[in-house]
Amino acid sequence: MAFVRTPFVAGVVPAATVQTNIDGVKNYVDGGVVAGDLATDNWVERKHIMRGYYNPITNSHEFVSGTQAGFTASEDEYSFICDGPTGRNDISSPEYNNYPNAAINFFLPKAADVFFEFTAYPITPDLPPNAFEASRLFIFLDETRIIDSRCWTTHVANTGPRFPYQLGQCRNPWSGFYVAKNLAAGNHSLSLRGFSVARYSFLTKWSVSLETYFR
Amino acid sequence: MSKIINDNFIAGETVSLADTNAKFSDIETATATINEQNVRSEGVDRRTLKAHAYSTGRMEPLVYMDYFSNGVGTSAGAYNGQDGQAAFPLLNGSPTEMDWTALAGGGVTLTAGDIIRIHFGVFLTKHDDVGYDPAGASTTSPANLSDAIGVVFFPMWDIGAGWATVTNQVNLNNTVTAPHSFTIDGSTNRTDGVAWVSLEGYTAGSFVFPARMVHGMLCYQHTGADITIEKLRIHGRGPVVYQNTGAVRSIHVPVWGAGRYDNIGATKGMAIPTNPGDSSFDIYVAAFQMSATVLRGDS
Description:
Order of helices and strands of chain A: HEEEEEEEEHEEE
Low-confidence stretches of chain B: none
Largest sheet of chain A: 7 strands, antiparallel
Number of helices of chain B: 3
Largest sheet of chain B: 8 strands, antiparallel
Strand content of chain A: 35-45%
Strand content of chain B: 35-45%
Number of helices of chain A: 2
Mean pLDDT of chain A: 84
Oligomer: heterodimer
C-alpha cells in the first residue's frame, strides 16, 4: 500500500485535500504501485499495447512512451552556411544560421526527457587573415543556444612539408549531444546552427537523431 | 470495467464526507486487485506500474535519465604536468559529476538485462607544447607513419566502492610508471567508452589549440546480481600512444622527451614535447557534459 489517503473530516470538504488525494493517486499509479497490490494473473497481452505511429514526412515514430526521429544525409547531399549573413570579418556578434536539413521539429503531448545527438563532417576553406577560428556550430533548443555544445573548425596550414598530409589531422569531425530534462509539452525544435568567419562551411555528411521519453 | 470500484461524483449531487473518503479509500486498499482490467485501455502493463527511482514515476522503457554540463562555455580549466602516468578527473566548472545518492535507494539500481547508455563530450581547448608535431608523412618522406598520440577521456562510475571502471572496460585509472602499456582487447579490457583527442592544432601565443569537441559513448548491459549506481563522472589521461604490434594492441604510456621522443641533443628523435628537457604537458579543458540513460531490459 503505497498510497495513503488524507482523510476528510467533519466540516467542509477542502479543495486542497481533494487535490492532495488526486495527486497521491496519480503518483501511486505512475510509479508508486507496490508489488503487493498487483494481481498475479490476468495481465496485459501484446495485442493490448497501442501500436506506434510512423510519420514518413518527418521521419518520426511516435510510441506510447515517447517519440523517436532523425535525419541522415544521403550521398552527395550537403549542408551549407556562408560567412555573408553569419560572421564575415569576424564580427563580435555573429548571426547564427541553420545548417539546412539539420533540425528536428517535434511535438510533445506531455512533458518529457529529450535526448538529441548529431555527427557532422565539416569542411571550411580558409579566408585569410581570419586564420584560426574558421567556423562554429552549436545545438539550439528552440531559440536557446546551448553554449557548452560548441564545436569548431580551425585553420589548416596550406604550406610546409606536412601539407597536404596533415589535412586529415587538422579537420575535426563534429559530434555532440544534449539532454533537455523535463521539457514542457508543446512544439519544440532542436537544430544545428553556426557561423563562419571563413568563406563558408559545409557539411559533407551529417546525421541528427532525437529520442523523447514521457514523464 | 475497472476491478477497483471507484465511484465518481455526478454534477448536481451533494458531496458527502463518506463518499469523498470512499473515493480514495478504495484505492488505498487495492491489495492484490490491480490487474489488466484496471489499466489496459491506457496501454500500460505490470512493468509500467513497478516502483522505480522517480518518486513521481516514469513510463517504460525508461528507468532513469540524467544530464549535466559543467557550464563554463569557452572558459578553460588547466590540468598541468600531464604525462600519461596518472589519470585525472575533470573538475573544472560546476557540476562535474552525476550524483544519484539522494534518490530513493541511494542510487539507480541495474538489474540483469538493464542497459545504461552513457554519453559524454569534452572540449579540449589547448596545450602548451608549441611546436607539437607527431611527425608522419611529409613531401620529403611520404611513407612515414605518424604516431597516434592523444589524450583519452572515459567514464567512471561509483557503485558503492569508490570510483571504478565500468565493467569490462580497460582500467585506465591506475597510476603507473612509464613506460607502461595498457593492453586492450574485445573482452575484459574494452575501449568502447574511450574518446580520443588528437593534439594537432593551430599555434597562437604560447599554446597550441586543437579546439576539438569529442563525443564518447558507452552502452553497458548488466548481468549478474543487482548493482546500484551512485555517481558518474569523466576522467582523462594522457598524452598516450595507441600501439598495435599485431597480436597485441595497447594504450602506451611512454617516457616523454626520451627515447623515440627524445628532445635533447643532436640525436634527438621526434622531440615530443618540443622544448629540450620537457617531459609533460599542460592541458586545458573547457566545456564538458555527460548524460546517462537507464533503460529497462528484460528485468
